[in-house]
């Protein structure tokens, strides 16, 4: 962890809320308290559910959790020092050690506070403190405070999901007859549908509905001018070069890892893209990486991943249902795998992964291509620092590179590269 205030060896300071009026400042001053208030409202609205399931113990747990979250919101809004975690979750020590590393350079406990510390750190810390509040009140421990928003995003996007699964069926039906150029055309379309699926995130909207209303395929032409950096040709050639000569394409293609972002419509775009990669022989396996607890409002957890497949299977739409059953088969056959390493819900920049999560780094080294979805992953890939926008992506990665990688991200924060 570097000192947050200075450029060292060409690596600029971390973005923080010190700069009044900056996006980080407005996020911490306005958006994070709004998200916390919605979490408190959600818990309050489910009061009867807790009473029905757990009786008076449930009501007491609901009350105590709200008290802890209200205290957290006050600490945030009055720029109090960041506190050590006190729960019994497995990642408590890495979080507290990270805090102590932050405090050491400044030498005092007061220095690490919400508006003075790196934006990336305090924003991740808020979501981990929500988890602490739930863990400390057992009947609440497994309650997903963001579940309503995530499931609503799926249901509000049904027309778009139907259109996408219908498109995929058309590709699947003709897969054997497609020329390489036709395959490339479908690849580019579904890669960009996955990119734009990232518009549907509930953190940037502070929980407001942000679902996909129109056909994601038909939107591609109008969205094309908004792509700032397009390395899709390099993604294609990485997949093609990973195909080893052998009897059947499927058996000898490469492994693609997708570091997921948001549940709801974005997850469907990722599952559709993953199905296409396997059906076309561009990938023999796809490994998905999600979050081990509810994170940044709409990020995917194991429950969201399984729920989305089940919901798609149960859809009253032929091609949605067909895709859902295909996804379930891929999971059962081991063609698809789901992981949720604790590192993804810690505050680290990804250049720290080899040191702080060597097991995860080794897992990613087994991939032929790693796709990182979304803005938070982009910020962590590049350290969420005051980089100049003309700096190269490779420079910003600061040596992080377990495998060929690509970020599929809609711009929602300051960091941006390659605009030279
Ligand atoms: O990672 P995602 O879902 O694309 O976006 C995460 C996000 O909503 O949270 C942060 C601001 O609160 C920004 O990184 C971005 O706006
Ligand atoms: Mn997200």
Automatic annotation (TrEMBL):
- Write the record's keywords in alphabetical order, separated by commas: Hydrolase, Manganese, Metal-binding, Methyltransferase, Nickel, S-adenosyl-L-methionine, Transferase
A biological process (GO) annotation for this entry?
A: DNA damage response
In terms of domain of life, where is this protein from? Eukaryota
Give GO cellular component annotations, separated by semicolons: nucleus
Reactions catalysed, semicolon-separated, are: beta-D-fructose 1-phosphate + H2O = D-fructose + phosphate; beta-D-fructose 6-phosphate = dihydroxyacetone + D-glyceraldehyde 3-phosphate; L-glutamyl-[protein] + S-adenosyl-L-methionine = [protein]-L-glutamate 5-O-methyl ester + S-adenosyl-L-homocysteine
Q: S-adenosyl-L-methionine: present as a keyword of the record?
A: yes
Q: Which residues does the UniProt record annotate as the domain Damage-control phosphatase ARMT1-like metal-binding?
A: 27-418
InterPro entries of this UniProt entry?
A: ARMT-1-like_metal-bd_sf (IPR036075), ARMT1 (IPR039763), ARMT1-like_metal-bd (IPR002791)
Q: Would the keyword Lipid biosynthesis be found if you checked this record's keyword annotation?
A: no
> Which Gene Ontology molecular-function terms are recorded?
metal ion binding; phosphatase activity; protein carboxyl O-methyltransferase activity
Q: What is its EC number?
A: 2.1.1.-, 3.1.3.-
Q: Which cofactor does it need?
A: Mn(2+); Ni(2+)
Q: Name one Pfam family in it.
A: ARMT1-like_dom
Its domain comment says: Subfamily III proteins have a conserved RTxK motif about 40-50 residues from the C-terminus; the threonine may be replaced by serine or cysteine.
Family, similarity comment: Belongs to the damage-control phosphatase family. Sugar phosphate phosphatase III subfamily.
| Role played | Metal-dependent phosphatase that shows phosphatase activity against several substrates, including fructose-1-phosphate and fructose-6-phosphate. Its preference for fructose-1-phosphate, a strong glycating agent that causes DNA damage rather than a canonical yeast metabolite, suggests a damage-control function in hexose phosphate metabolism. Has also been shown to have O-methyltransferase activity that methylates glutamate residues of target proteins to form gamma-glutamyl methyl ester residues. Possibly methylates PCNA, suggesting it is involved in the DNA damage response.
Against PANTHER family, the record matches this protein to:
DAMAGE-CONTROL PHOSPHATASE ARMT1
> What protein does this entry describe?
Sugar phosphate phosphatase
- Which source organism does the UniProt entry give? Sparus aurata
Q: What is the lineage of its organism?
A: Eukaryota, Metazoa, Chordata, Craniata, Vertebrata
């Amino acid at each position: 962890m570097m000192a947050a205030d200075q450029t060292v060896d060409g690596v600029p300071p971390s973005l923080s809320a010190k700069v009044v009026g900056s996006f980080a400042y407005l996020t911490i001053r306005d958006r994070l308290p709004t998200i916390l208030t919605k979490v408190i409202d959600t818990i309050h609205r489910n009061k009867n559910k807790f009473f029905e399931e757990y009786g008076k113990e449930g009501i007491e747990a609901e009350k105590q959790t709200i008290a802890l979250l209200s205290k957290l919101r006050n600490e945030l809004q009055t720029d109090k020092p960041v506190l050590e975690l006190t729960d019994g979750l497995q990642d408590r020590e890495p979080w507290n050690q990270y805090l102590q590393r932050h405090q050491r350079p400044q030498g005092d406990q007061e220095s690490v506070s919400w508006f003075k510390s790196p934006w990336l750190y305090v924003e991740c810390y808020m979501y981990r403190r929500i988890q602490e509040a739930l863990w400390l009140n057992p009947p609440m421990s497994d309650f997903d405070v963001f579940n309503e928003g995530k499931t609503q995003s799926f249901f509000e996007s049904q027309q778009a999901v139907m259109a996408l699964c219908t498109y995929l069926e058309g590709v699947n039906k003709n897969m054997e007859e497609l020329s390489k150029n036709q395959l490339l055309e479908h690849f580019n379309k579904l890669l960009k549908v996955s990119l734009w699926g990232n518009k549907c995130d509930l953190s940037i909207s502070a929980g407001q509905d942000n679902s996909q209303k129109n056909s994601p395929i038909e939107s591609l032409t109008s969205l094309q001018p908004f792509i700032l950096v397009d390395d899709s040709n390099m993604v294609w050639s990485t997949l093609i070069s990973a195909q080893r000569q052998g009897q059947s394409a499927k058996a000898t293609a490469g492994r693609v890892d997708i570091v997921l972002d948001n549940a709801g419509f974005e997850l469907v775009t990722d599952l559709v893209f993953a199905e296409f990669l396997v059906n076309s022989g561009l990938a023999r396996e796809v490994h998905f990486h999600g979050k081990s607890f509810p994170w940044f409002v709409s990020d995917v957890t194991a429950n969201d991943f399984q729920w989305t497949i089940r919901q798609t299977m149960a859809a009253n739409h032929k091609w949605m249902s067909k895709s859902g059953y295909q996804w379930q088969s891929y999971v059962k056959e081991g063609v698809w795998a789901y992981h949720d390493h604790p590192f993804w819900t810690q505050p680290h920049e990804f250049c720290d992964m080899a040191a702080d999560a060597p097991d995860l780094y080794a897992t990613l080294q087994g991939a032929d291509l790693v796709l990182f979805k979304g803005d938070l992953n982009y910020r962590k890939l590049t350290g969420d620092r005051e980089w100049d926008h003309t700096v190269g992506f490779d420079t910003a990665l600061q040596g992080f590179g377990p495998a060929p990688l690509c970020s599929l991200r809609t711009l929602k924060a300051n960091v941006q590269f390659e605009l030279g």
